[in-house]
Amino acid sequence: MLDRSKRTKNKPIKNKRNRGRAALIAFLVIVIVGAGAYTFRKSLAVMAFDLFLSGQVEQKLEKSYSPLEGEEQKSVVPEQKMKPFSILLLGVDQRKSEPARSDTMIYAVVRPEESKVLLISIPRDTYTELVGRDKEDKINHAYVFGGEKMAKDTVENFLGSPVDYYAAINFEGLKQVVDALGGVELPITKDIVNKHKDHEKFTIKAGKPLYDGQEALNFVRYREDSDFNRTKRHQIFLNAIVNRMLKLDQVSKIPELMDMLGENFKTDMLPSYIIDLSKQVLLGDSPSISGFTIMGEGFRKNGIFYDAANEEDVQYAQEMIKSWSDAETESSQLLMPESRDAKASTTESSNNQAVSKE
């Protein structure tokens, strides 16, 4: 078992807990479907959405519906209450000259009735078995070798928990969305320069009121600092898109924005289920998002950097998934990421006291 206090000398390890890391990925579809209407709130929002947009949006979502090969199509049975479900969120960065890579991998548990979401972030360099290749490698390579299917199977094996759905979003497609919104606000206080000889060259000027699609995409892709900062920029970028939509109240643009995502968004969630889920979010309170990042200790193998996942973190993630996936678990009784932090702090304090007494 790894010591949580250790840190590799070769590369910075991820921050202790990246609260809400890339949290908006979990609700990106819901936000695009319902963000414009969200400012109207509650029953009025659902009424307006049903009357003017629901049919169009469902038709657009049909193009993104992509069930996994070899798996049965998931049917949706109308229920009075929507049960908790899990979804693997894949933030994909694909350039024309490179294979697609899942830069962001998040196992999410959604409790629609309570508007609660648990996000468990899996660092992309995590060393684990790639299901279907019979070898160990970086977990994000599962997407490179076997797409959404291998990524899903590998994450299920890694966490020992089933994945009900997947959603893969390519950041390239969001560039057009940003331009359609007239740009987004980004908190850039110092020029960002990608200048390494092996990297794409670009400069993003600081202090601009709005940044266009290409600048926003470069902001996401900048890779010359820590991996933690890069994933944090993913979160900032997605938040910026949502905030811009809400600020402009762009209800009528929702179908157009769905068109722009096009092939850059895929999921095996039925369009009708996404519509129902969007209505549930509109009728409920603002979503409460809890984030947990599985830590790791860095090591090198054959000159390549990997993360060896902390076994205690993996076990705690499994316990949280079980707690959140059980519809019978009361909201107040849900196992939270903060409980892990409190437990770790208590243990560390007890150990320090024992050492001081000696």
TrEMBL record:
Name assigned to this protein: LCP family protein required for cell wall assembly
Phylogenetic placement of the source organism: Bacteria, Bacillati, Bacillota, Bacilli, Bacillales
Keywords carried by this UniProt record: Membrane, Transmembrane, Transmembrane helix
Regions of compositional bias (Polar residues) in chain numbering: 344-358
Organism: Fontibacillus solani
Family: Belongs to the LytR/CpsA/Psr (LCP) family.
PANTHER family attached to this UniProt entry: POLYISOPRENYL-TEICHOIC ACID--PEPTIDOGLYCAN TEICHOIC ACID TRANSFERASE TAGU
Highest taxon above the source species: Bacteria
Transmembrane segments: 21-40
InterPro entries: LytR/CpsA/Psr_CW_biosynth, LytR_CpsA_psr
Gene3D superfamilies assigned to the protein according to its UniProt record, in alphabetical order: LCP protein
